[in-house]
Amino acid sequence: MVGAGTNAAAPRFDGGPAVVLVRPQLAVNIGMAARAMANFGLSDMRLVSPREIGSARALKKGASQAASGAVYILEGARFFDSVEAAIADLNCVWATTARERGQDKRVLLPDVAMPEMASRLYAGEKHGILFGPERTGLENHEVALADALITFPVSPAYASLNLAQAVLLTGYEWQRAKGATLPFDNPKFSPAAPREMITSLFTFLEEALEARGYYRPLPKAPVMKRNMRNMFHRMQLTEQDVRTFRGALVRLLNGPRKLDYLDTDDK
Questions:
Q1: Do 195 and 222 contact (CB within 8 A), yes or no?
Q2: Which of 6, 70, 228, 264 is most buried, by the most CB atoms less than 10 A from its CB?
Q3: Where along the chain do its domains lie?
Q4: Residue 101 is inside which H or E element, if any?
């Protein structure tokens, strides 16, 4: 099943650091990790001794539904028997962890680590990020293989992240580090209202309110008018906003329009 927002005709982003899943336990998490990678243009998935999944065929069968259109990531995934083999071709390795490990390594948040990683990747280096198994995380000897650590600013009362969520957060910061831009923007159907137009609306509204005794007690009228004007200015009104609001006021003041209920054929 392919989710909303996918476009098979659009070019795919690829590259980035390798995502190394160490002893992942659940096929569904591998599939969701693949989906997260596809979301943010990561394409190099490496699996170290995944539980109960010993081949690319079994992986695709068990995780493809959770991948939701990112099956190509699963199809390209590589299998390894050890972390050392999975990272052998990399110049720099980062390990994700939720707890202090007593190892003399730099500890960075993803939004700090990813720009550094991006600059070094663009310089020709190869990087990878280790993600541990769902239940226990990485072992200390696996963390020792890394050059630096990545951790997330989570609540200390509940610091455990789902495997795919950790990949998603890291991928998001990777995309930002590359210089992310909005995938779309809403067109502006009406330009900002000029001050003359807004001032005319204020005059019309204030005269109507004065005629109905709104400004009471009278000494407070200037403050009440100023507060209302400030309220409208904060809205950043467009020309269409002003026309719509003024038209609504006219109907409230003058009552409903007189409608001709006869069609041309009835006349």
A1: no
A2: 70
A3: 18-177, 195-255
A4: none
End-to-end CA gap in the chain? 57
Look up residue 20 and give its two tokens: 């190394």
- Predicted TM-score of the model (pTM): 0.70
- Chain segment 238-263, per-residue pLDDT in tens: 999 999 999 999 999 888 877 655 55
Q: Is the distance from CB of 197 to CB of 132 less than 8 angstroms?
A: no
Per-residue pLDDT tens over the stretch 214-237 = 999 999 999 999 999 999 999 889
How far apart are alpha carbons 114 and 178 in whole angstroms? 9
C-alpha to C-alpha distances, 25 to 13, 84, 96, 137, 232, nearest whole angstrom: 27, 19, 17, 11, 56
C-alpha dist (Å) from residue 5 to 1, 39, 100, 227: 12, 10, 38, 43
Helix (H, G, I), strand (E, B) or coil at 228: helix
Residue type, 241: D
d(CA 159, CA 162): 10
CATH top-level class of 18-177: alpha beta
What would the two tokens of residue 60 be?
């695709």
Kindly state the tokens that stand for 203: 């005059």
Q: Which amino acid is at 227?
A: N
Q: Summarize the chain as % helix, strand, coil (round to 5).
A: 45, 10, 45
